[in-house]
Amino acid sequence: MASAKLNSLSSQWIANNPFSSRRGGSSSSLSSTRNVSLPIRASYSDELVQTAKSVASRGRGILAIDESNATAGKRLASIGLDNTEVNRQAYRQLLLTTPGLGEYISGAIFFEETLYQSTTDGKKFVDCLREENIVPGIKVDKGLVPLPGSNNESWCQGLDGLASRSAEYYKQGARFAKWRTVVSIPSGPSALAVKEAAWGLARYAAISQDNGLVPIVEPEILLDGDHPIERTLEVAEKVWSEVFFYLAQNNVLFEGILLKPSMVTPGAEHKERASPETIAKYTLTMLNRRVPPAVPGIMFLSGGQSEVEATLNLNAMNQSPNPWHVSFSYARALQNTVLKTWQGRPENVEAAQKSLLVRAKANSLAQLGRYSAEGENEEAKKDMFVKGYTY
To answer: Is residue 5 included in any domain, yes or no?
Structure first.
């Protein structure tokens, strides 16, 4: 009886299915139903592809300076400076006016304040980048907040008003966007948190492309925890599977996006550290299983690794050809030594800029698979992991 009832229900569903040829009875009706609406971003599609290719260009990567004002304040406090707009501007000016930076850096992610700032001489920071053939980008999310119904997890807010903000950012000169959400392995992660992260990223990506901005898709799997690398791989595969499912559902143009994944590593508190070769093996396994080759660039985050560690791991991933441009989008792993060299003193600006070029060149070589850690100083080898890191 149960089987008969199930077959009856199945027949009813098939009869009422809008894609069934039984509805309307003609093949032309079926064809027109299937071809309902697949939005094509005709006005920006070519530009999106070109922008993504420009950022994912050989031997170059992204400088991430999109820290919120509060986080920028923490960085400045580490060298004894107050968190004022003048000091934030001075530091950003140091970074963005570094001569020759465009040889190693293809894109820079701004916080909103920076996108509208200029140098002390009145030149827009956006124009400083353009002169170096660096693409300006913008952080568009509004930060993490608690996710109700989850296991003490977070979700990323910022979709409200995103379309109008993105249109304004485009007018100001931004050509790509960045949205960071996080997944915590010690928290499960819960199915709810993974789905929320994936759906939010997909909606953001579609809205960004509609407004001419290449979306960087970043579900950061936090380093927090004592789990082995195999567990990280398992979670990363689940997360990226959901992300691409929802990207496709939202008709996102894969050739016009960039990814900013975490490297697949053991938890920061795991008893054994993994070698660069092991991290490369597990990370590339995950990417090959989950990321379509249509995606032009994989721009890794450093996630609290030391400057040298992040560079060594990237180098290991580029020892053989990949379907995508495998590169970097580092913040602390490019800036740590720079800040400590600068110390907020005008007379140290040139030395600090040289420090930035050293790190940028090292990661450029890693993108080409030609980096060696020989000669690196001890400061660059210091771990920068912060448990529960926010910015």
So the answer is: no
